[in-house]
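Lab channel / #folding
Pinned by the channel admin:
"Please post every new chain as: sequence first, then the structure tokens as a reply. Keep commentary short and put observations after the output so the thread stays searchable."

First post following the new format, from NK:
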Amino acid sequence: MPLIRKLNRGDFSLEDYKALLRNLRPQVVEGARWIARAASHMTDFEMRSLFIGHAQDEHRDFQMLERNYVAVGGPLAEIAGAEKNIGSEALSAFIFHQASQENPIDLVGSMFIIEGLGNRLAGEWAAQIQRVLGLRRDQVSFLAYHSENDENHIAKLEAVFNADWMTPAIAARMVKTARVTARLYLLQLEEISVD
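Reply from TO:
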């Protein structure tokens, strides 16, 4: 990904960071929406509760993104009005389609990819961005928070993977959905324009 290559090389700019935040916001806003939609299509009440709890945890995360954007000099109206890039459009369309199916348990695969990215890479990116741009921690709080908080979400998802009712067929659906989500999330990041 061009943007991440720039970050790893140390020539990541403040405009690159603002572009990252602008391009993440639409997907973050929609995260709680698709999780709640999926919950409404669950007939298993335990899974419905898991999804509702997850949506509740996520539904205001976009505000952290907005605070970070404003803290580095970006106008709130600019990030609030940011359109989805091509990858975000594709990711959103796929996930909302899946969430509208009956018992969309396969979306645990999507959650695993998105939460796993936050847990495994967001903290590293926050530290790199903070160091390269000389920012304060409160200016990279969205990424830093997800590095720490997504570990709890991963633990809940792993409990689903190990549930008694897990079958090879359900696992295969989750894996396929995870793979599609990963490809589309990558496309979302690839579509961020860099200078």
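NK: Residues 13-190 form a domain with the Heme Oxygenase; Chain A fold (CATH 1.20.910.10).
TO: also worth noting, The radius of gyration is 17 Å.
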